[in-house]
């Protein structure tokens, strides 16, 4: 069973989730070793028992239409089912612990003046070590995303991208500029609201309505101008499945979504996006992200270089996302025409950066939740997701950074 850990790291202008009040029943497995500096010991070696730290466990809330699942936590049958799936939950926890330690590692060296390529590659190299990368069995499920300025998602640098980090405003900074705090607070609050509302038998549309209500209750003043924080209505959270980051169900961040219910055993990325712009994103900039179509069947390919590239994708990424930097890392070159051909044939789907209006500010917060038979586990919670502030600097706007780690047992 494949487990993907999906949570966000942030750089200037974007920050992360703050804990809210939940029933917390977390247990921490003792470390057999102390992590090195710089970080290099795989998580499985730090926890040789194979039992990894449990995330934040929460009772299921009552839904808006009267359904309640709070009884599950003490139900004997559900406890047995929960135990039967322990190996799967444990895979998620291993990936989550790797993600937490990567976050801690990044804050120890990231600084203004570094290129985005250097930051991404150093971060990803650490992730590969901690998860003990092994092809499609363990590795990175999505490229590091660096959402710059008005770009809300899907930006990562391609080779030759000269973008330099001018300022660090993230969950790891010590000093801060309160200019953006209200925007970040709005999106963090909206994400935590989505997490609180989510649960077995809860309708996805109810989660979206609650998220929108909270986010739109905030206003932010930036450079003397007041903005209402808007949810980016064409971005959303989603279910996660084996080798499938977007597994079929979407978690809207505005009202009016589907009445489909969340179900036992599902895994969700609860993520919200806020903006001072139009609250709608569009494709923009050079495309860095790609993913093989999960449902594509056999498609005849005549171009030899396209056949070769598809073999590379199948062997190294399967149906998980990849970026051009990762193809470069594998030694591939002169592949852009072949990549375009695979996209034209519908075998590979391109995922260009998604941007709101120029001059706007965007923010994203995200957590992964496990809908276990007994309770809801926020597997990606960490101490570094509290008391988030921003770093003071001028001539800069928000930018967000995240990566995804998966583990297959």
Which key phrases capture this entry?
single chain; 409 residues; alpha+beta; Creatine Amidinohydrolase; Arc Repressor Mutant, subunit A; 2 domains; 7-stranded antiparallel β-sheet; 3-stranded antiparallel β-sheet; 9 helices; disordered N terminus; Methionine aminopeptidase 2; glycoprotein
Describe the protein.
It is a single chain. The chain has 409 residues and is an alpha+beta fold. It has 2 domains: 2-284 and 354-408, Alpha-Beta Complex (Creatine Amidinohydrolase), CATH 3.90.230.10; 289-351, Arc Repressor Mutant, subunit A. Helix content is 26%, strand content 22%. The protein has helices at residues 43-46, 76-84, 86-107, 116-130, 181-197, 204-215, 304-316, 324-329, 336-344, and strands spanning 2-11, 56-58, 138-148, 151-153, 219-222, 225-228, 230-231, 237-240, 250-251, 267-275, 282-283, 289-292, 321-323, 348-351, 354-355, 362-371, 376-378, 399-408. The strands form 5 sheets. Strands 2, 7, 8, 9, 10, 16 and 17 form a 7-stranded antiparallel β-sheet that branches. Helix 3 runs antiparallel to helix 4, helix 5 (181-197) runs antiparallel to helix 6 and helix 7 (304-316) crosses helix 9.
């Amino acid at each position: 069973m494949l487990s993907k850990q999906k949570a966000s790291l942030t750089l200037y202008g974007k920050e992360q989730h703050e804990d809210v009040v939940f029933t917390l029943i977390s247990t921490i497995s003792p470390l057999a070793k102390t992590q090195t500096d710089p970080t290099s010991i795989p998580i499985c070696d730090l926890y040789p028992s194979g039992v990894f730290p449990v995330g934040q466990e929460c009772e299921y809330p009552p839904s808006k239409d009267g359904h309640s699942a709070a009884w599950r936590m003490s139900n004997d049958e559900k406890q047995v089912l929960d135990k039967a799936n322990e190996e799967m939950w444990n895979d998620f926890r291993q990936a989550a612990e790797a993600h937490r330690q990567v976050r801690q590692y990044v804050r120890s060296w990231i600084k203004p003046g570094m290129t985005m390529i250097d930051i991404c590659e150093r971060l990803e190299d650490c992730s590969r070590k901690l998860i003990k990368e092994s092809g499609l069995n363990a590795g990175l499920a999505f490229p590091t995303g660096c959402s710059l300025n008005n770009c809300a998602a899907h930006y990562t640098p391609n080779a030759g991208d000269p973008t330099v980090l001018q300022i660090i405003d993230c969950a790891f900074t010590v000093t801060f500029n309160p200019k953006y705090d209200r925007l970040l607070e709005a999106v963090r609050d909206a994400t935590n609201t989505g997490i609180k509302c989510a649960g077995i038998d809860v309708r996805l549309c109810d989660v979206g309505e609650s998220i929108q209500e909270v986010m739109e209750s905030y206003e932010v003043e930036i450079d003397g101008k007041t903005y209402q924080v808007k949810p980016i209505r064409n971005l959303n959270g989603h279910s996660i499945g084996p080798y499938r980051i977007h597994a079929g169900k979407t978690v809207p961040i505005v009202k009016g979504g589907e009445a489909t219910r969340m179900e036992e055993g599902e895994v969700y990325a609860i993520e919200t996006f806020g903006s001072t712009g139009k609250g709608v994103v569009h494709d923009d900039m050079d495309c860095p992200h790609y993913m093989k179509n999960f449902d594509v069947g056999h498609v005849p390919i005549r171009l030899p270089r396209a056949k070769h590239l598809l073999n590379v994708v199948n062997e190294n990424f399967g149906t998980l996302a990849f970026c051009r930097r990762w193809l470069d890392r594998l030694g591939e070159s002169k592949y852009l025409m072949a990549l375009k051909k695979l996209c034209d044939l519908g075998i590979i789907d391109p995922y260009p950066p998604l941007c709101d209006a120029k001059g706007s500010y965007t923010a994203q917060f995200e957590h992964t939740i496990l809908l276990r038979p007994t309770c809801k586990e926020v597997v990606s919670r960490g101490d570094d997701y509290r008391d988030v502030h921003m770093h003071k600097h001028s001539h800069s706007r928000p930018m967000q950074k995240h990566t995804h780690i998966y583990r297959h047992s």
